[in-house]
Design the sequence.
């Protein structure tokens, strides 16, 4: 088990990504990870557009939720979403490279609050996401969930 918090966060992220079929299928890439922080990105593909031919909001939400998941699970304690909300500020377009940056705002006991900024390749703010997490039994690296 890594004793350095940064190494622990990287090990947790590697374990999560290796088991997350949704992130893999959507092409979500982990760019950066640290305790309580993560950055991920994804390109908006044709199969991610809606009837208006813009990025479907569900995929933008999923990208933000993935950044949130890495950030709140960076301590090797299994954390799940208790509540999430998103504000869409501009449409994502076909071919856009979206980057979601999650930052821990508060961690008290088993509960955390994380804000996620989703920007396009031009640095334009596409959406703001807030996730509230709660820790449950188990650890990412060697607990029962790691066996599943």
Sequence:
């Amino acid at each position: 088990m890594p004793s350095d918090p940064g190494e622990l966060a990287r090990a947790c992220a590697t374990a999560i990504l290796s088991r997350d079929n949704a992130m893999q299928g959507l092409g979500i890439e982990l760019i950066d990870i640290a305790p309580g922080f993560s950055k991920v990105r994804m390109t908006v593909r044709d199969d991610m557009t809606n009837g208006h031919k813009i990025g479907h909001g569900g995929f933008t939400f999923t990208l933000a939720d993935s950044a949130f998941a890495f950030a709140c699970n960076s301590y090797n304690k299994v954390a799940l979403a208790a509540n999430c909300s998103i504000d869409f500020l501009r449409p994502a377009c076909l071919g856009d490279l979206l980057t979601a940056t999650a930052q821990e705002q508060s961690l008290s006991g088993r509960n955390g609050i994380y804000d996620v900024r989703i920007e396009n390749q031009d640095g334009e703010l596409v959406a703001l996401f807030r996730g509230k997490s709660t820790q449950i039994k188990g650890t990412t690296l060697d607990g029962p969930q790691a066996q599943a």
